């Protein structure tokens, strides 16, 4: 077998469609099997532009005139499928006759894979954005259940170690005659009122660097001095308490339902931790919480009661008057004081 015959066999065997045409009339000199499978077997008088749809004669003009290489991607309809071919045409010569060598490669699968990759990438990006939004929603939800530093510990380690805080202050607010109000009022109205009021309380608590821990029905509990210690925890809860009452006073002037509340302050130690396994709730308990809870019972409507041990810390910023000793269930005798209006405008602090 001659070298030329071997070369022809090789050209017919490769997976690339190859054809050789004359420059003069674009008539076929040679084509391999792959070319015929894709574009059909050209007749004896067929031209290259007849065999390959979409290949325009004028596009080959510059190639034939200047000898440049022509490259293009052509989409060709085959039955119900559209195939994409990468076509490269270059000049050659044989026995002083100018020829064009046509190389065709079916890149349909490559383009389909590229399209699939683009779609997959877009889907991954979309899912990533969804996950980020979901993560933000979960984070906001958890931050409503626990302080940020506790949330960071929970996020990092998966657990929250119970912490004893020796010097904290607590404010406990309870509405007067709430049970009677709730029993004779539409539940949606009751809930709307509480949401409105507690939202305002949350803003006040944040303004004075305190942390709202929970609401128990109509009761509202916030702390200062935990989880981050603060030296003015007593005045912080007292400012919150006076602002709570001031807000209710002003709100009662323009709303149908008139709210009154009793407030107890407590100081001392407390333990903070996440309680529960499936339903996480950050909670505080201990002497300071018990004291605030018990003392709010001794407060008259729209008044604030605190233990005498807070008197020194509050005396410079509030009108503090003695009430006297009272027997507190589970605690014993405690000297109480009434916390009145602020003597000077406080300096709001950012939330810890």
TrEMBL record:
This protein's record includes keyword Protease: no
Gene Ontology CC: one annotated term: guanylate cyclase complex, soluble
Top-level taxon of the source organism: Bacteria
Entry-linked Pfam families: Guanylate_cyc
Entry's Gene Ontology BP terms: cGMP-mediated signaling; response to oxygen levels
Annotated coiled-coil segments of the chain: 110-144
Start and end residues of each Guanylate cyclase domain: 169-296
Signal peptide, first to last residue: none
GO molecular function, one term: guanylate cyclase activity
Keyword line: Coiled coil
InterPro entries named in the record: A/G_cyclase (IPR001054), Nucleotide_cyclase (IPR029787)
Name this polypeptide is given: Adenylate cyclase
Lineage: Bacteria, Pseudomonadati, Pseudomonadota, Alphaproteobacteria, Rhodobacterales
